[in-house]
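WARN no homologs supplied; continuing
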Amino acid sequence: MKRLGVLGGTFDPVHYGHLVAAQEVGWSLRLDRVLFVPAARSPHKLTAEVSPVQHRVAMIEIAIADNPLFALSTVDVDRPGPSYTVDTLAILKQAYGEDVELFFIVGMDALAELPSWREPERVLSLARLVGVTRPPFPTVDLGSLAARLPGSEGRIDLVAMPGLDISASDLRLRVAQGRPIRYLLPPGVEAYIARHGLYRSSASASTISPTATR
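OK structure emitted
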């Protein structure tokens, strides 16, 4: 059975925090591939201003081009409506078949909210969840989570990642303020942002970055 990681989010922009998380999970759990799945619109951030999808997809393509472990999936941006995790996983499961085991990668903040996701029990039946540590969020107590969501026992893995406190919202703000973003994301992504004039307006800079879709 092949093991396929799934990392969802708006990726506005994609940065080294995303890439390190995907790499660390891929290595730790011996995944065959990690899919980056940009969301058309996160159901938890429907009022947030998000960069056009073609820019976010292009930045992901640039960021992952040199890593054979990574691949892009446009399953969420190719369909209408909010990008609910349960729908994304169901489509991927159908596309890749029953001989593929899915591992959905989330941050601690999103994992803590698992009981509030749409159809969380079905999410857990479609994929294992992988919670990655990310400052400043504390590690989720899986026992307490299981008490709130029976059936999650044994379906969640925790993977520690290097302490990179990088956020897309901070990167957008830095660009708007003319501050450097070098060494926080791949050079090609930095060049793309400059070439297309992304995040120059105060509106886009102040928008809170949507997290992994739920």
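Strands lie at 2-9, 33-38, 70-72, 100-107, 127-132, 156-159.
OK
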